[in-house]
Every structure is written in C-alpha cells, then in structure tokens.
Amino acid sequence: MAFRSGRPLIGATRVPGDKSISHRALMLAAIASGRSRITGLSPGGDVRSTADALRQMGVAISNEGDQWTVEGRGEAGLSEPPGPIDLGNSGTSARLLMGLIASHPIRVTIIGDSSLSQRPMERVAAPLRTIGAAIQASPGGTLPVTVEGQGKAMPRHHRLAIASAQVKSALMLAALRTPGTSSVTEPVATRDHSERLFDRFGAPISIEEDEAGGRTITITGPAALTAQDIRVPGDPSSAAFLAVAALIVPGSDIFIRDVCINPLRTGLFEALRQMGGDIIFVDKKMVDGEPVANIRARHSRLSAIDIAPQKVPSMIDEFPIFFIAAAFADGTSRARGLRELRVKESDRITAMADGLKAIGVDVEESEDGLAITGSGGGHLRGGASIASRLDHRIAMSFAVAGLHCDEAVTIDSMMPVDTSFPGFIERLRELQNA
Ligand code: S3P
Fold this sequence. Notes:
CATH topology of the largest domain: UDP-n-acetylglucosamine1-carboxyvinyl-transferase, Chain
Bound molecules: shikimate-3-phosphate
Number of domains: 2
Strand content: 25-35%
Number of helices: 12
Strand order of the largest sheet: 2-15-17-16
Structural class: alpha/beta
C-alpha cells in the first residue's frame, strides 16, 4: 500500500484500547472470582490471542460490541487446554501466560507465528524453573515452549538483569498462586500496569522504590482475586503514530481522545516536546487506576535530540516512530542502549536503518542504537518499498513517513498493523479529509 504527501491532519480521533492493559485485565479477570466486565479492550490480534488462549484453558469470555464479559474461574483456576495454544504475533501473551500457567498444575504447549517463534523465551523460562515449573523451550530458547506448571510452586526473590515489564509481569502472575511471599526486583522502573491492576483486583501487593531507580514488587499468595469492572484507556503506543504524523505534516492539528498517560509510557511524548513538538495533555483524569488525557498535537518544527538511556523503558515501543520524527528534525538525533529492539517483533534497529536509508535519510547504525540526521522539516525523498517484516510498528512508522515525502512510500503489507491498531489507515484518512 502506498502512502504519499497530502492534506494536513485535522480533527479529533480515538485509538484502540491499550494493549498491555488489555492482556493483563483479561488474565486477572480469568482467575478472579466472579464476573468481570471490561470495556475499551484492544480489538487487535494480540489481545484476541490472549482471549482465545484463556478460552482454551476453560475461561468463558464473550462480548457484545465493546462490552466484554469474563467469567472468572476463581479458586479452580485454569484447566489444561486440549492442544497447543497459538499466540500468533504476541510476545506479551506468550510471556505473561507462561507465568500464569507456571503455578497451575497443567501442561501447556505454546506456539506462535514466524516472528514470535524467533523471540527469546528463556528470560521468562529460567526464573520460572526456580519456582518449580518444568519448562522446555526449543533450541535457542524459542517457541514452541512446553510449560508444565507446578501446583505447589515455591516462593522466590527474583532479581531481573534486564528491564522488562513482560518478565516482571510473568513472575508476578506466577506469584498469585504460589504460597508464601514472592518478590521481583527490576533494575529500572518499567510499565506498572500489572501493579495497578493487581491492586484493583485485590491481590496483596507492595512496591518499594530504591535509590537507583529500581523497584521491588512483593506479592503474598495464594491470592484471592475479586472480579472487577474495568475501562481500558486508549493506547499511547498507537496514539504515538498519529501524533508524529500531525507534527511532521504542515498545517496539522489533531486531538486524540482518552489516551493512557501513565508516566512509564509517555517517554516519546516528552522527547517530542523537548524537540520542540507542540504536544499537550488536556483534561487529565484518573480512569480505573490509570491516568488518562486527551492529546493535542500540532505541526511543529523539530530539532534533534539525544535520548538519555534511563528514558529508554518509558518509550521502548516508540523508537520506530521516534526515528521517523528524528528524520524530519533539524540536526542529528542519537539513541543508544537499544539492544532490546533487536528482539522485538523484528530487529527494529536494522529494519528502521534500512528503511530510512531507502527513503533518503542519513543514518548510522551501531550495535545498540541509531544516529539519524533529519531533513529540518522538509520533504524526504521517499520513493521506496518497505518490508514490514511481520512488525506492526515498522509498517505504521513508514506509512507516517510517507505523508511528507516527494515520492510515495510503499509498504509491502499493512496486515501486521491489525495486531495492535485495526483501523489505523481509516483514522489517518479521516483526519486528512476532515
Ligand atoms: C510489554 C512490555 C514491553 C513492550 C511490549 C509490551 C508489556 O516488552 O515492548 O510491547 O505489556 O509488558 P519487554 O518486557 O520485552 O520490554
């Protein structure tokens, strides 16, 4: 599909429900006692993978329009699925479910698509083995993985070597059915949606911050969770694409309504502001334990920035679209400490470097980062075809870049976008035609 320069983006829009919160809300509702109702759940393929997997493990999940109902299994917990569970493209489903399953006495084989099947799973498997789960991964520590959960798991203190909300959350989920006190220490704070939702569902949880910026989360199990009604706010990681589109296309002025502005997710918006981007959060409020706002983004002249390493976790999924913003800024932007980007849905460092070069941007790739020299606000050359590599964020990033290029940017497949942002193209077009 081709994306080319056109009209400014004008008007108000919405983005799908936050993917991270959606996965967690479904999983906690599945093991709580009683009926939970969830609205605003992400309609993307990744969250559908989580819902389907939970259904295969005995959880009744249904929806009427935007109103989802989950019949929690309570003490009975999850049951063994009749066959392997296929989690498609979703790393969050795979890692979090491994944790949830690890303290259930069931045996589950997890498979996924060719992108997910290359992603590292040992980071979750290794600490889960220490609580007593038997986990067999394929050579290289990838899917298919078979988890044989432990009904009498042992509480442990886990100290994480990498900053990963997925690993943290997997261990937290395992702790819910582990008798005794389990804890996880993360080296730097990562997204805390699990912590917020655990508290809301009534899990005994405490959080301690250390001076170095890390956190220790302590959970005492077995925890009896109570069903909840949850409204899921819009996904800031989806809003990021529309916001950057508005910043780079002259004349644009958009509102994105009801977006989660959890401070551990808003690193990109802060970076864009520092670059001179006119982005503001208005009508801030709390919705079911998460801060939410309307985001206004207007066309702006951007200047280059260096991203400080401690900011990386708060914008970990936003680097592809950050690199696009940098490609239109004045000067050379640099980001380092991004080794984790090499094991996302694709190798995002190489995917972005190759794509940016193809559309005429001066890029220097290193092992753990990129340096990008921008156009100073002018059009890029464009005129290239980009491989989306089964990576939704690569596809959307180059679609946005195409909106301010001399020649069209063609994306080989926009299908991957449906994992997180069904309706992305329609929303862009609506804003252009307002
Ligand atoms: C996520 C955590 C991050 C992020 C992913 C979603 C989560 O992954 O990249 O898209 O919901 O916990 P890592 O834990 O691998 O950093």
